[in-house]
Amino acid sequence: MADPTVRRRRLGGELRRLREDKGLSLEDVEKAGLGINAVKLSRLENARTAAKRDDIVRLLDFYKVDHDRRESLLTLVKDGAKRGWWIPYGDVLNPFTADLLSLEADAARINTYEALIIPGLLQTARYAREAILATRMSDGGAPAVDEQLTIRTARQSVLTKSGAPHVRMVIHEAALSVRIGDDGAVMKEQMQRLLDLSLLPNVDIQVMPAAAALHPGTLGGFTILGFPERNDLDVVYTERLMNSLYIEQPAEVELFSVAFQKVTAEALPLDASLRFITQQRDRYSK
Fold it and tell me: Structure pTM?
């Protein structure tokens, strides 16, 4: 899955659901005389080809799609060929990260739980450099690290763009307590960054205390990316040492949504979380 097929994939998945909801086969649609044969429709549904607006309009008319859903899908058609800002960095981006950037660019909601590291969207440049150096498993040299840092910093523009997603981050206390560097300056700056971002109307940050009861996040961090078209287009992203995993089946995504609700319920409330982060910032000042 590489850009721009993230948008195509979402459109294709919706077209397939619309057809299946009507109890139609690919051949049934071909026989309807829309000028779209079974092979072409299959390629559209599987994101193997770019969609043309006229074709999608005919399909939506045939499926009798309501206005709001129709408009959201036509927006995907319009945006399907857009090139993301990250494309020039293809040499240093693995496909999983490229997909994540594309999904973040389109998301209406981003819900994340992290246990041992500050989420990438919230990292300062100095913290991000240390995180990249600590977690990379190959020696790409200084230029590669610098490019990854540039990508991670540019990625954060999603928080303040027009139509920015609502972002809810739950960070375990352990991630706020790791000292990076000898004097605590990196972590002090990072704590202040969290406090500054929390002032944005679309950003909520909670802290999971070390004394919390067991909860689903105990099994590892995850991110749920939600989209404005329909909840069953939401995607879960989990990061691993050598690769990442995307979960797209609606029933499985729903399990993660329930898990995130339990995580947020177990975490400190927003005000208490900000007080905790402030205390950590002051501790690193000493």
Answer: 0.78
Q: How far apart (Å, rounded) are the C-alpha atoms in residues 150 and 89? A: 10
Nearest Cα residue to 212 out of 113, 281, 84: 113
The per-residue pLDDT for range 104-155, each reduced to its tens digit, is 988 999 999 999 999 999 999 999 998 888 877 555 555 578 888 888 888 9
Regarding whether 215 and 271 lie in a shared domain, the answer is: yes
Q: Record the tokens describing residue 168, joined without a space.
A: 């809810």
pLDDT of 2 reads: 42
- Is residue 188 within 8 A of residue 285, CB to CB? The reply is yes
The set of residues, in sequence order, having a beta carbon less than 8 Å from that of 173 and lying 6+ positions away, is: 207, 208, 209, 210, 276
Indicate the pairing of strand 222-226 with strand 235-239: antiparallel
Our count of domains for the chain comes to 2
Query: pLDDT for 142-162, tens place per residue?
Result: 557 888 888 888 899 999 999
Residue type, position 131, single letter: A
Number of Cβ within 10 Å of residue 45's Cβ equals 21
Domain span holding position 48: 5-79
Judgement on whether residues 66 and 111 belong to the same structural domain of the protein: no
CA–CA separation, 134 and 93 (whole Å) = 17
Supply the DSSP string of 53-104, one letter for each residue: HHHHHHHHHHHT--HHHHHHHHHHHHHTTPPPTTGGGTTT--HHHHHHHHHH
CA distance 112 to 122: 11
Q: Give the strand order in the sheet containing 235-239.
A: 203-208, 166-172, 109-114, 222-226, 235-239, 244-247
Q: Write the pLDDT tens digit of every residue in 18-68.
A: 999 999 999 999 999 999 999 999 999 988 888 888 999 999 999 999 888
Together in a domain, 120 and 262 = yes
